[in-house]
Amino acid sequence: MNQIENIREAVKSIMANKLRTTLTAAIIAIGITSLVGILTAIDGIQNSINDSFSNLGSNTFVIEDIRLERGKKGGVAQKNYPRLTFDQVSQFVDHYKVGEVTALYTSVTRNAEVKYGSEVTNPNVSVIGGDINYLYVEGYDIEDGRSISAFEHQNGANVALIGHEVLNTLFKENEKSLNKSISFLGMKFKIVGVLAKQGTEGGRADRAVIVPLGVARRLAKNRSLNYKIGVSVKDPTNMDHLMGEATGLMKAIRKDTPGGEKSFDVQEKKSLAERLGEITGYLRIGGFTIGFITLLGASIGLMNIMLVSVTERTREIGVRKALGATPKRIRQQFLIESIVITQIGGLGGVLLGFIVGNIISTLLADTFVVPWLWMLVGFGIGMIVGLLSGYLPAYKASKLDPIVSLRFE
């Protein structure tokens, strides 16, 4: 009795019990659908997050003042360092020559009112002053108009870029905003461009007005500003090295003690994307757990059905043994039946999971992914479930006494 005959007998048995096979395969399919579907949706959302942060200048680091937390840290009062001055940050930008793009910027206020004619925004608009590289480092695009020119930056022209929310508040639908005059903080500005809509990840830019850095200093009216330096890193693998170079240069400019604490902060902007990546990692674990529990229930159901099948086919087993079938061949037949059923369910589950997962990721993140890894995992798990669920019934069938089996009614 060869292997081909075993496979033929297993398939014949499955075809003879179509309803039972369909129900069992459906249970397996539901488990694999939940597994592949959830993981596919999470992958789609993760891809959307990565794209969003790529558009927002995720491969950047920022040099800024050390933020003091309220109260004490570890029972010890935090040391208050002097702010980064304009001369210091300008000196850094002039001397940091490692082939990367640096931008100097500051926030004048976050509660400005912007006016155009009789229209006024809420007092929650951020006024940001940046140099010519600011848009590039932050990853902002221009939807309408143009960027602020180098000449306007150098001469401190009263021109501005506005965010999408400011545009919608001040101007009616289809009304042109370019070259119109708006006013805020006691000065008038000509709109030269509108920033592309950023959405939830970059919502601050939607509610912002960007002006040349020199103009921002005038708007501050001798008030001390918090200057920041953004550095765009083309190759993320160089991030640590470039951050180290920047730290050394700024410590020299600030005259910090070599080997001592630095009087400023250097933060990798990608850290937020990484934290979101960790969250999606936890979601993957949760999704895998849900799918595993569902598959566990399906495997128990499959094992029960296979045990019933052994009981129903006791006489058949006795006949096969009387004709020379060995216990190994009997075990193989029942294992093949179990694996075929789980693979039928696995195929349906992978296809449904692929469809459901992409529907969810399209609705939530407008992305489409082909989860080759999770599809292979789904088939692999189906194979394992079939082996584990079918082994006990197969072992029981192989141990039946042929004489007793032939007498079975």
How would you portray this structure in words?
Residues 21-246 form the MacB-like periplasmic core domain. It is a multi-pass membrane protein. It comes from Reichenbachiella carrageenanivorans. Pfam families: FtsX (PF02687), MacB_PCD (PF12704). The chain crosses the membrane at residues 21-42, 285-310, 334-360, 372-392. By secondary structure, the protein is an alpha+beta fold. It has 2 domains: 3-53 and 275-407, no CATH class; 60-268, no CATH class. The chain is built from 14 helices and 14 strands. The strands form 3 sheets. Strands 1, 4, 7, 8, 9, 10, 11, 12, 13 and 14 form a 10-stranded mixed beta sheet that branches. It has a two-stranded antiparallel ribbon with strand order 2-3. Strand 2 (72-73) and strand 3 (76-77) form a beta hairpin. Helix 2 (18-55) runs parallel beside helix 12. The protein is elongated, with a radius of gyration of 33 Å. The model has no long low-confidence stretch (mean pLDDT 81).
Topology at a glance:
Elements: H1 3-16, H2 18-55, E1 60-64, E2 72-73, E3 76-77, H3 86-95, E4 101-112, E5 115-116, E6 119-120, E7 125-130, H4 134-138, E8 142-145, H5 150-155, E9 159-162, H6 164-170, E10 181-184, E11 187-195, H7 203-206, E12 208-212, H8 213-220, E13 227-232, H9 239-254, E14 265-268, H10 271-312, H11 314-322, H12 327-365, H13 372-398, H14 402-407
Parallel strand pairs: 7-12, 9-11
Antiparallel strand pairs: 1-13, 1-14, 2-3, 4-7, 4-13, 5-6, 8-11, 9-12, 10-11
